[in-house]
């Protein structure tokens, strides 16, 4: 069976392998031993902590094939971005240059460094090994997070944000970043990604332009990168757009990928989910897979399962109950995985 659970320190080797496979443009999982060990430790502390309002917690989950014990994917949530170090984006704006007498009217697009999305909860670190990109696993690995958040709303902001990986060419270079590198900030794209991934933002406040930039002054290829995602990230983007996430006029500082935003309570998975106590019995439905999650923290489990929804109960099999760490009468939150 394939389950989703909180990461543990025994998963370090698998996490490092995923950091390697996902490549350097995948900023939230850099190939950095100390960073990854700390991230696992921080996640374990976050699940164990008694929380009344969101702070610097970070929750990292893994998808595990329980037959082979292989870790096949990761998925994360940061509770409140910008609580440890300032969170930066470029805000896309418009400046109007207008003169009636001279009959000149120009609308000029601008980029302004900002901290506007501070305090949002951020979904991140979504990665599934390619052999497992079948049978709705990717959808489940993205969407279960919204069930987890609706089970524990005190741990999260109502504004959910996702920074999508921005466009890079076949050599792994970002034309958008190349323009900044040439004009402002003498570090290459890989280094800027590494600094972002490990949370070292000092270079942004010290080296990036502080005043609005007219995008008209950038090269065409740099401008074309604005709000454009990396080709490998289109499925992740499609999943979030289907949930109702919208482009919010904010882009990544170094790769210009879009920051997508939605209120938690408007996310389709949250709105369509139901929560009921469990009854363990034979299940008749063999057609529709559901994503199901328990309401625990350190013992959190989610999985795709078949179930029957009755007026009073969710009927699930013994095998599903064991995988989800629930007994008869415990609650599950579920949503169809389509
Ligand atoms: C993101 C996942 C886990 C998704 O898994 P799968 O690829 O198996 O998903 P899937 O079910 O095949 O596709 C999901 C949806 O995208 C659609 N789809 C697939 N390819 C597409 C394309 N090229 N253009 C547009 N839509 C596309 C499918 O039709 C499907 O829509 P329907 O559901 O309608 O059928 C995987 O692709 C992956 O690991 N990608 C590489 C890592 C990555 O880029 N991660 C995101 C980084 S950005 C990040 O981490 C922040 C965001 C976040 O954490 O969510």
If you had to describe this structure to a student in words, what would you say it looks like?
This protein has two domains: 2-90 and 113-269, Aminopeptidase (3-Layer(aba) Sandwich), CATH 3.40.630.30; 273-336, Beta Barrel (Barwin-like endoglucanases), CATH 2.40.40. It has a 16-stranded mixed beta sheet, sandwiched between helices. A hairpin with a 4-residue loop joins strand 4 and strand 5. The protein has helices spanning 12-22, 33-48, 137-151, 175-183, 189-197, 202-207, 220-224, 234-243, 268-272, 318-323; strands spanning 2-6, 58-65, 70-78, 89-99, 104-114, 121-128, 159-163, 213-214, 246-251, 258-263, 274-280, 289-294, 302-306, 308-309, 314-316, 331-336. Helices cover 27% and strands 30% of the residues. It starts with a strand and ends with a strand. The chain is an alpha+beta fold. The chain is built from ten helices and 16 strands. The structure holds succinyl-coenzyme A. Succinyl-coenzyme A is lined by residues 22, 123-128, 133, 138-139, 141-142, 162, 164-165, 232-236, 238-239, 242. Keywords: Acyltransferase, Arginine metabolism, Transferase. InterPro entries: Acyl_CoA_acyltransferase (IPR016181), Arg_succinylTrfase_AstA/AruG (IPR007041), Arginine_N-succinylTrfase (IPR017650). It comes from Colwellia chukchiensis. One of its GO terms (biological process) is L-arginine catabolic process.
């Amino acid at each position: 069976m394939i389950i989703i659970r909180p990461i543990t320190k025994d998963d370090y080797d698998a996490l490092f392998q995923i950091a390697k496979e996902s490549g350097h443009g995948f900023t939230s999982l850099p190939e950095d031993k100390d960073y990854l060990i700390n991230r696992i430790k921080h996640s374990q502390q976050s699940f164990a902590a008694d929380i009344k309002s969101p702070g610097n917690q970070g929750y990292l989950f893994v998808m595990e094939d329980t037959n082979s014990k292989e870790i096949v994917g990761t998925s994360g949530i940061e509770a409140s971005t910008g609580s440890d170090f300032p969170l930066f984006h470029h805000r896309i704006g418009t400046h109007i240059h207008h003169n009636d007498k001279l009959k000149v009217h120009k609308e000029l697009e601008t980029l302004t460094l900002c901290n506007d999305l501070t305090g949002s909860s951020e979904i991140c670190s979504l990665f599934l090994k390619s052999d497992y990109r079948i049978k709705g696993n990717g959808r489940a690995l993205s969407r279960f997070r919204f069930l987890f958040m609706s089970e524990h709303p005190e741990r999260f902001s109502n504004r959910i944000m996702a920074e999508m990986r921005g466009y890079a060419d076949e050599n792994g270079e970002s034309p958008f970043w190349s323009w900044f590198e040439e004009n402002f900030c003498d570090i290459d794209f890989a280094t800027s990604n590494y600094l972002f991934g490990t949370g070292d933002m000092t270079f942004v406040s010290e080296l990036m332009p502080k005043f609005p930039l007219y995008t008209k002054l950038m090269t065409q290829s740099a401008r074309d990168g604005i709000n454009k995602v990396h080709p490998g990230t289109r499925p992740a983007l499609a999943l979030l757009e289907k949930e109702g996430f919208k482009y919010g006029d904010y882009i990544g500082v170094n790769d210009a990928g879009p920051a997508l935003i939605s209120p938690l309570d408007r996310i389709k998975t949250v709105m369509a989910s139901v929560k009921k106590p469990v009854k363990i019995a034979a299940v008749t439905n063999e057609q529709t897979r559901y994503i199901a999650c328990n309401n625990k923290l350190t013992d959190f489990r989610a999985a795709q399962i078949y179930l029957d929804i009755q007026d009073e109960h969710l009927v699930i099999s013994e095998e599903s109950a064991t995988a989800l760490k629930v007994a008869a009468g415990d609650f599950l939150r579920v949503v169809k995985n389509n």
